[in-house]
Batch of 2 targets.
Target 1
Amino acid sequence: MSVARRARLLVPTSAGSKRLLAALLLLLIACCMARPLRDPDLWFHIVCGRWIVSHHEVPTQDYWNMFGAGKPWRAYSWLGQVLFALVEKDFGLRGLISLELCTIFLFLLASVWSLASTSRSLLLGFLLTLLSAVGCYWHISLRPQTLTWILYPVVILLCERVRARGLSVGYGAKLAGILCLWANIHVSTVIPLATIALLVERERRQDGLRCYSSPASSQLC
């Protein structure tokens, strides 16, 4: 068997093989990006999550801050805190480390899926995801806002599909569900809302330019 033929056998040719190889590479990158659990806020989130699980409600006053004890306060990241508390209760530190690894992997996977779909190039989507991974490396930690990193690429992809195919009940329900999930994980829901508003405004401006680009079409606008 020639060297060229062996090389062709080692290089994946089908779309499924390429996606599997990309997923394995993303898992390897996620393992390299995962860091020790050194964020002190993680343990506060776990304690707060334990309280929510025990009392079956979201606290409305601060019980843990020595300077703000008894003052009005609401756990706006309650869903992520409950997740951290349940994982720590059932699986301990190994479970938290595995959760951090899964969070990073899902963020990378969602980014590749979104960028590759919008650019129609798996290679370009993978390279752009690597660039975003480098930019996010020093901010990696097991916090509620990190969970929203998984949702943001999905929001962008859904907006692009709405732009290309039009708004449908399915796309509207998916966007509404993601926004509701985001709002209960972290208070930064303004980010996807601002992204949607900017994309809508961009599309409106482009429609205006196309509308008045020719005299025939300007009469219909």
Note: Residues 78-119 form the longest helix (42 residues).
Target 2
Amino acid sequence: MKRREMILIGVAAALAALVALDHWRRAAEPSTEVATATAEPAAARPADEGPLLPAFDRFSAIDQRPLFSAARRPPERPAPVAPVITAQARETGAPAFQVTGVVSGPGRPSAALIRQGADNRRLYAGETFEGWRIESVETDGVVVSRDGERWRLPVGRRE
């Protein structure tokens, strides 16, 4: 054999000896993890449970719906329902959209989350949507204006 091959074999043997020595040393030491996990008296645990985990039959949901199954799908969401524009809203010229939330954070302007039908948008004060100008975004609603009309729309319902 060449000298380089001999050196590589020697290094591999030394590493294997170190790994075996470390494994042997850890096996000889008492484990503190098991000692803390079994601090509960054995009489308090049912006979079919191990020292660290409950009995396997308590995990039946995992067996019935395995995580990595090709057939696993998220639950179906109901189709979004488009808001109905009432006759009163048509007569008074009220906005035909709904404020679904307000987002604010330190150092950033507040934004309004607005839904009309299946369309969801994030708008800031000064922007327009469906002809309505967002005057201000408050903690619990939005003030909008159009053609001299001002409306305050609270989060979650239309007025």
Note: Confidence is low (pLDDT under 50) at residues 34-39.
